[in-house]
Known about the structure:
By secondary structure, chain A is α+β, with helices and mostly antiparallel strands. Chain A is built from 4 helices and 15 strands. The termini of chain A are far apart.
Amino acid sequence: xxxxIKNDTKLRVGLLGGEPWSTKMRDRIRDWLGVKGINCYxxxxxxxxxxxxxxxxxxIHVWGDIAYAEVLDQETGERVAPGERGELVLTxxxxxxxxxxxxxxxxxxxxxxxxxxxxxxxxxxxxxxxRVDDMLIIRGINVFPSQVEHTLMSIPExxxxxxxxxxxxxxLDTMLVRVELKKEAFTDNxxxxxxxxxxxxxxxxxxxxxxxxxxxxxxxTLQRFEGKAKRVVDRREI
Amino acid sequence: xxEKYRIKQLSIFSENRPGRLAALAKAMMEEDVxxxxxxxxxxxxxxxxxxxxxxxxxxxxxxxxxxVTVRYTDVLAVEMEDRPxxxxxxxxxxxxxxxxxxxxxxxxxxRCAVLIxxxxxxxxxxxxLLEKGARLLEISQFT
Lengths: 238, 143
Ligand SMILES: [Zn+2]
């Protein structure tokens, strides 16, 4: 409708949450919309969205007097060291009608106990890396769709939308990542397109520690989602 | 001065799925666009369709409006005699001129056969081909 959020509105800050997102995405929101994206975190079982980043944009402050946050190893259930990744467990310290004790929200993150440059000393959680139930185990390796997303976002020729197809051939799991080629990245030179595919596969292997096949698809052809995206098709039969 | 020999080929990014080519061909029919020649280069799971048509701009507009990923690529169109030895005549001139071909396809038109060439530097290639006595189609023949 010809309205530019960046130039025609006074919107400057957005509290964004609900879905894992990357620093790259935050930078793009800033560049395109002129909006400073403040990561926000919560769940309806707590009080809804309640914790946010500060102006430093470096981790979400958990108000330590309201909530006690722990990060556990998913397999052993033991607490991991600060900075290590695991499953977030929250205990609400002032909730009365519906007590929540070591509640498994289901999100994967890391805790940072260092004081923030803003002066606050509450622990911070780093960004949400994914959901416990999003995690795929492919050939014994844990893979999060968010890792695929972050890798793809660093490759300018492809878009934001992707699909992961997991299948099993014989005894071996296979992983296929389908990603939309950007219109402006299309070239008539088929060798360059093949090189792009190889580059994406190489980057994915580096990020995931597992080989994935890559398929380039036409722009605007993968399914769009409102709310939480479902990007995984798991065809393996158990 | 060699610009007039740069023929606007349509290059289309297309997934390999049933009905895709038919949908593109139907759109060309509806636009009353005649396809002189086309080729499909096969990638992995996708293809690049290359087409030479009589009205490239009309075709481009329609395809874009359908959301198709399409772009122009400059190619040269070399006339060949439509008889045994015709291809040799055209390719021989290329070899002498030391021109490397990225890809090529051909069609047999009403008046003559045409060899379509994608080369790195179409202007330099056109110059050398003309020097060797080749006849090139001009862009005015595709409007
Ligand atoms: Zn802070």
